[in-house]
Amino acid sequence: MGVASSANRSFASGRAVVALMLREMSTRYGRSPGGYVWAVAEPVGALIVLSVVFALMLRSPPLGNSFLLFYASGYLPFTVYATIAASVQVSINFSRPLLMYPAVSWIDAILARFALNLLTSVTIMVIVLFGVLEFTSASANLVFGPMILATLLAALLGLGIGSLNCLLTGLFSAWGSIWGIITRPLFLVAGVIFIYENMPESVQSVLWYFPWIHVTGLFRTGVYPTYAPDYISIPVVMTWIMIPLALGLLLLRRYHQDILNR
Length: 262
What we know:
Belongs to the ABC-2 integral membrane protein family. By secondary structure, this protein is an all-alpha fold. It has eleven helices and no strands.
């Protein structure tokens, strides 16, 4: 009896997650001209601008001989984190009307936004990397293990920080703006436009405690097999994942109704 009831709840939750994903797909991409095309065009445009600007300033990229591939190897995993964190942060507010129904829970809303944005980000990553390697002079012997691990860590990092921010934004409406200001330099801290080894030791000693530099470094070991950084620490990244995720989920379980009633 208990097993059957648990299975029914899991099935109902799964259906709710899929329904929320379909709703967001139609809301975000179905109403704009081009739809998913813009989701791909945005990172491609950003990478082209980065490549052109730094090609004018530098003779060669820090790794390899293609500016476009180098910046893609840092920008794409960072975008996985940033996209998921931003979407999970507003998941309760986004799905607020549906959360009034007992069949849909707050965790369904978070899982739906996490799953959809992970699938979208991975699709964009595959398309962009294929395009760079196929239609430019860049070449690489990709090692998929580190790339997949880095992408998974980036996604979980986005889920953890996004869940905690979902709580804080729901309880304190100004937190979203404050967090946006605090994390404005994150693009630089993540090592998108440089590698850790090229920084002064004083800067390295600070950067090492931030998970994003470990994620981009790990991803680049899959794009550049001869690149073997010794600073990468999975435990650092996991600490940044587990603490915000545990706090966020535990406190959302306690305060999600207060957030919905605001």
